[in-house]
Structures are given as C-alpha cells and as structure tokens.
Description:
Helix content of chain B: under 10%
Helix content of chain A: under 10%
Oligomer: heterodimer
Number of helices of chain A: 0
Order of helices and strands of chain A: EEEEEEEEEEE
Shape of chain B: globular
Amino acid sequence: ETGVTQSPTHLIKTRGQQVTLRCSSQSGHNTVSWYQQALGQGPQFIFQYYREEENGRGNFPPRFSGLQFPNYSSELNVNALELDDSALYLCASSWDRRPEAFFGQGTRLTVV
Amino acid sequence: QKEVEQNSGPLSVPEGAIASLNCTYSDRGSQSFFWYRQYSGKSPELIMSIYSNGDKEDGRFTAQLNKASQYVSLLIRDSQPSDSATYLCAPGRVDEKLTFGTGTRLTIIP
Lengths: 112, 110
C-alpha cells in the first residue's frame, strides 16, 4: 500500500507567478484535502476534493484552485503568487470524506 | 474564541516522565478527534484517533476525551527524546475538514 506523495518537495517562485503542486492519494483513498501551514501555525484548510468534485473550501481567495483526477490524484494551483503564500502546502487523503486523514510530506513553497 | 485551543508551549518534560498535552474545542458537533505529531520541517503524522468519551490507549500514548467539557488530551508515558515534536490537536466531522490548533511544542529533556 502506497502512502500519500507530493511533488515537488521544495519550490521557489517569484511574486506574481503561478504554481502547480501535485498530490497522489494513498491507495484506496478517494478524498483529497489541501492545507496551508505557515511557520508556527497549524494547518489551515484550503479545499477538499471527493470523487473529482470540490467538497468544501476554506477562507482562501479564488486564485487558489484545484482539481482531482479519476485516479484520485490532485493538483493545487495558485495564481498571482504573493509573498504571504510562502508556506508548507500539505495534501491529505482519506476514504469517503472521513476526517481521519493521512498527510504527504508536503511542498515547501517560497515566494520571493 | 478560537475553534481549537492548545497551549503553544514549549512544554519541557524530563525523559521517562509523563507528558500531558491538552486541547479544547468550540464545535460541539465534532465527532472525531485526532492527534498528529509533527517534527520540525516535516508533515503531520497521525498518532491517535478517539471517537467516544473516555480513554483510548495505544502503546505509550493515551488519548482522553470529554465531549461535555469539549476537552481532549494526550498523555505520553515514559517520554523519550524522539517524542520531542509539535503535537497538533484536530477535531473533525464526517464530510468536513479537520480544524487544527496551533500545536504544542514538546521537548523531552535527557
């Protein structure tokens, strides 16, 4: 059984650019949630995808978007990057929208 | 009032002692409660889940839940240096997101 994997692990972007982060869910899991974790804070919910449909969104602007593919892998896209977008981006997968979620290793995004 | 409150610490505990981590939450509809361990620079790792009032033990870890008081705790017995990490409390509901506290930073002193 494979765990949750994210790519890339680290990324440096310039303000105003766009970025795409990728996540492969754990085998058998059909729900993917994305979180943003700033330094010294707990993870903040961005959105969740269940069977390719968005199933809830946190308090993030529309420039944060995502999708889920038929194999339940997922992408997080962020447009018009701002310095405050610098954070650890976490993908978590679960089964049937259950809250018990397992995290990937995260993508550390730095916006300069 | 924050949705999930944890003492940010740092909490320093001697090796071999019991570490006690506390969490209060505001959503009375929360049905599931999770403790995650996060090492510096790493992602959160699920270490305990609890769904019913009372205690749940798993090895050196014991989770305690009191829904009436909206309180959940994590006890770590025989603390080891490898337990030094930030511990995140996360209540959740089916079909909804997890809500995380800011975490308690635990340091085990050899």
